[in-house]
Design brief:
This protein is mostly helical. The protein has nine helices and no strands. Keywords: Cell membrane, Membrane, Transmembrane, Transmembrane helix.
Amino acid sequence: MFDFITSWIAAGGAFAVAALMFLENVFPPIPSELVMPLAGYNAATGEARPVLTLIAGLIGSVAGAWIWYEIGRRLGRDRLMRLVDRYGRWLTLSCDDVERALGWFERHGAAAIFFGRMIPTVRTLISVPAGLQHMGLIKFLTYTTAGSLIWVGGLFGAGYLLEAQYERVQVWLNPVTNGVIAVIVALYLWRVFRGKGRRQRD
């Protein structure tokens, strides 16, 4: 699986990395924790240009965050809650998740956007309250880009450094990659069939 993913990223180049990071922010089962290290590994082997690959990952990540910002801004709180209540299970989101993100944003403001981009599970949701509260787009994109650069750059750098140690880790790379994907898919399916996203009704 490791070889398959890295080959796919190599074939699609920067566009594939940007697309995967965009989808990672929209569709939960695609993890940046897997995409960017593998993109960094490919860049280290000469399959892709390091700077271009990193920028592509950053653009995809910011674009995905902007989508959720626009959803929050355009729908408003009540309509968004009704949407999450009805369809949130497919995105493994609940109304309580949105409420917690709103509370965090109200307490910390712009800092929540910056630091939230570096916290798994929070990274996607934190864009929603920024849109709901009509945070300025330039301000939102600035803090989102700064936080995303640290997160994406760190993952990319880890994968880039991995290439130098490939001889030591090649034996377990495929099993670990397969295991990560299996766990992510299993957790997603469990949350979907558990019905996460619906309010408890009397």
